[in-house]
Amino acid sequence: MPAQSKEETKEVNKMGTIHGVDLSVHNVTVDFSNLKNSGKANFAILRAGYGKLASQKDKKFETYYNSCK
């Protein structure tokens, strides 16, 4: 499927579809400025960790969190 233009993405969003990304240590480095400006993602879900221990914090959480702000 071809990539949507910003105008097409805005039109889809008017119909109730919202696009986002789900990120964790398993993802490659993300260019958040490019992602936001492309109009392809309106939000990000960041995995903070897994399990119950502080040592189980996702290693990319801080990087992704600071980049999302």
Characterization of the model:
By secondary structure, the chain is α+β, with helices and mostly antiparallel strands. It has one domain. Helix content is 35%, strand content 12%. The chain is built from 3 helices and 2 strands; from the N terminus they run αβαβα. The chain has helices spanning 6-14, 32-38, 61-68, and strands at residues 20-23, 43-46. It has a two-stranded parallel ribbon. Strand 1 (20-23), helix 2 and strand 2 (43-46) form a beta-alpha-beta unit. The radius of gyration is 14 Å and the shape is elongated. The model has no long low-confidence stretch (mean pLDDT 81).
List the helices and strands and how they pair.
Layout: H1 6-14, E1 20-23, H2 32-38, E2 43-46, H3 61-68
Parallel strand pairs: 1-2
Give structural attributes.
single chain; 69 residues; elongated
Biggest sheet architecture: 2 strands, parallel
Order of helices and strands: HEHEH
Global geometry: elongated
How far is the N terminus from the C terminus?
Answer: 30 Å
Write down the Rg. Answer: 14 Å
